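Complex 467.
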Amino acid sequence: MFNSKLIFLIVAFIWNGTFLLCQNIEESGGGEYIHNPSMKCVSDEDYSRISFMLHDNMNILQNKGILPKSDKNQVVAFAFPLKKAENLTWNNFYGISGFVDQNSDNEVMDYNCGLRTYDGHNGVDYFTWPFQWYLVENDLVHIVAAADGIIIGKEDGNSSYSCDWNGNQNWNAVYLRHNDGSVTWYGHMKKNSLTGKAIGSQVKQGEYLGVVGSSGRSSGPHLHFEVYKSQPFTRFNLIEPHSGSCNTLNNDSWWESQESYQYPVLNTILTHNNVIEFGCPTELEKTYFKNEFKPGDKVYFSRFYKDQKKGSTSFQKVYKPDNTLWRQWQHTFTDDFNASWWFNTQTLPANAEIGEWKYEATYEGSYMQHTFRVTNTSGTADEDTEFNMITFPNPAIDILKLSFPPNDQIQKIAIIIRSVTGKIVLNQTYLGETEGQVDIAHLPNGIYLLECKKEDKTLTKKLIINR
Ligand SMILES: [Zn+2]
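Predicted structure with zinc ion bound:
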């Protein structure tokens, strides 16, 4: 379980951070991405179901001679269990919301003697960050095998869109047995994203297992990674893979390379045409991604951090197409946050140079560059960022939620759904709205084409209905 309500404090307040050279900043805001660490990811019923299932599967595999005897002398060292998709260009894509709780009573304590855990939490929670639902929808963060092993369990078919602790829903997960007899659990995966390999198959370290989702008892997309040195899956065999002075479960680190307890990174920087909003499937996340602007446009420059560190400073610069510096500003943080985001707006001059502009940020040794274009032509090719449509969920169930770009003038947007043969099965229009809802309960499961028409522009997307 991790960040229950995505309570995020915004918008457009002026923070206490220090600015130098900030005379041109217009609007700014952001804050912590707050997690609510009050519930367990895995319930007692889950533990009993999973234990029985894995026990049975391992017996069957052993009897078939597929599961070799474990060798305690083998050394298993873990690689990081997440990997970004090749087309994700961000520096980093996750934060850590909870380690294994070392305290068996009602108090909490993580391996490093801190409080970064939840009561009774037996795994490490890695949440994707930022734009968690965008990452889920586009399969951009993969869960991979921490070490070579054999698949001893798979659970799939549960919704990937949990936004809160939901009493009795199961997760989607893959379970591996490694050569030394240890077992790793990978939970909350996206529905239907699991590896096609069957139970009993071998996987290599770093091999794809699934996509990060939010199935089961989960308040947002994250990986719950749980480790046991052997069966049975009880506290006695539980491992916290990080070594530290308050780790009461094991002395040694199980990582090939253990990440520092606090590891500040600039995850990504982006440009937008409005103040972004994080949300849940019921309240759509609004990315407002935009990489093409016109002279005089207001540009929203955003930055997203993992482990923002108190007293550290992030430096931002924007360059014109001829590489001359246009703006620069810096932000010194006054708090420690597991995850945070900040934005500033800058209005392009009426005579802004046409061409490719460069936005860059440097933070604690991490650097990112993001380019955007300034054009004076209206909407020709590559208008994807200007005229975007976000659909949720996809695959869809009964209600499809849509998010359109902010509508300056009152513009009509038509949503058309066609069957694969091209027949129109649904046609709905919206006037000046930035989001809409389409009732698709009457449409049978299958693949459709979803068209969004604005003036003479049409955006087409594949829509899958899968209940
Ligand atoms: Zn967890």
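The CA atoms of residues 388 and 405 lie 6 Å apart.
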